[in-house]
Design brief:
Layout: E1 8-11, H1 13-21, H2 26-37, E2 42-46, H3 47-61, H4 63-75, E3 79-81, H5 85-97, H6 102-114, E4 117-120, E5 136-138
Length: 140
Amino acid sequence: MAKPEYKRYVLDSFALIAYFEGEKGQESVIGLLERAAKSRCELFLNVVNLGEIAYIVERERGFSKTQETLARIDELPISICETDRRLALAAAHLKARYPIAYADCFAAALAQDKDAALVTGDPEFKNTGADAEVSLVWLE
């Protein structure tokens, strides 16, 4: 069965790390980036998840690699979305209900806000029930 195509997607840190590191799911992210470049879909990233990417890259590869990664993200057809009180409280509501990391809840809350599918391969989202509130697109 073919995966449904959405018009809007939120990428979590797992998805972008997979893209940059050539991990499982990279091809799916490349496909979404190509669609977005042709205006066939919209891609979003929460600024909290951008920070998550930054600390992961800096911890594993150093500060200069972090700066390079952030510059590359800025060149991609992804809208970086700020977090306000409303979104922070929506993320808190998800965190209270599901055993998911708080940063991941920001990605899920943004997906709800944008009526978008959340692109992830993060095992934290498996079998939590969060898929009842957010459409998940699993990286494969």
